[in-house]
């Protein structure tokens, strides 16, 4: 690690709902000892930092403040949440052109001061913007990742937890591919207490027919849209997902999380960013895991990749 990097410092770019809530989640969970908030609206960033700082006596010691891009020079982790928000009736991919333009300004502002940290993209469409960040930043692939389907996988486990009457921490399953409409639930590897989901169904005596699985998959895929329709935006769960990724990095956990990263021939997919179960540690991405998917799941993953590829070709990357 570069000696100028503070291994416990996090920069959060964007002090909107997701950025501010992410800073709160990091603070409450004791992830990082120094957090700097950066936003075009400096008053907003300063207000959020002040509000958070006033709770300092209730959490582990942490220095939270508002700053500018030069203040992220020694940050170990740079979390990017800035960008146009998804509106009701708008898909994540509808945001492509808006946020591509924003990122073409943000990324050079980061790399001007920091070339040794890890970049974590949260802004949607997260897979395309993660790929864009990799291309613009000139960072090695292991140090550029997106929040990907970490939240989707949590939603998946949460719904199965409710359905089966088992704590979500005992449900193991992944959503892979795009963080969006073409995401892929990996039912073939989903298990509870080590028991494959098909075999667990008779134990919990719930309806686990194929159409029931599809209902759960659809609920996961559409959860974000439903929340946006009801309250205008999502930020609590995504902030917790980002905090989980940050913890894996700062604490060198070797945790398996479905972050978005550069595909290097995994299941035949290359030169784009998508989510697969990935080992995460203090170097960022240690290893992307090619798990034994079913034939249908592998095809769906490739279809998800093509879905994004068609959108990437329209961009000037």
From TrEMBL:
It is an enzyme of class 1 (oxidoreductase). The modification Phosphotyrosine is found at residue 225. Substrate binds at residues 86, 92, 124-127, 152-155, 234. InterPro entries: L-lactate/malate_DH (IPR001557), L-lactate_DH (IPR011304), L-lactate_DH_AS (IPR018177), Lactate/malate_DH_C (IPR022383), Lactate/malate_DH_N (IPR001236), Lactate_DH/Glyco_Ohase_4_C (IPR015955), NAD(P)-bd_dom_sf (IPR036291). Its main location: cytoplasm. Pathway: Fermentation; pyruvate fermentation to lactate; (S)-lactate from pyruvate: step 1/1. One of its GO terms (biological process) is glycolytic process. It is found in: Cytoplasm. Allosterically activated by fructose 1,6-bisphosphate (FBP). One of its GO terms (molecular function) is L-lactate dehydrogenase (NAD+) activity. It catalyses: (S)-lactate + NAD(+) = pyruvate + NADH + H(+). Gene3D superfamilies: Lactate dehydrogenase/glycoside hydrolase, family 4, C-terminal (3.90.110.10), NAD(P)-binding Rossmann-like Domain (3.40.50.720). NAD(+) binds at residues 14-19, 39, 44, 69, 83-84, 99, 122-124, 147. Residues 9-146 form the Lactate/malate dehydrogenase N-terminal domain. GO terms for cellular component: cytoplasm. Residues 149-314 form the Lactate/malate dehydrogenase C-terminal domain. Beta-D-fructose 1,6-bisphosphate binds at residues 157, 172. Keywords: Allosteric enzyme, Cytoplasm, NAD, Oxidoreductase, Phosphoprotein. It comes from the Bacteria. NCBIfam families: L-LDH-NAD (TIGR01771), PRK00066.1 (NF000824), PRK06223.1 (NF004863). Catalyzes the conversion of lactate to pyruvate. Belongs to the LDH/MDH superfamily. LDH family. Homotetramer. This is L-lactate dehydrogenase. It comes from Halanaerobium saccharolyticum subsp. saccharolyticum DSM 6643. The lineage of its organism: Bacteria, Bacillati, Bacillota, Clostridia, Halanaerobiales.
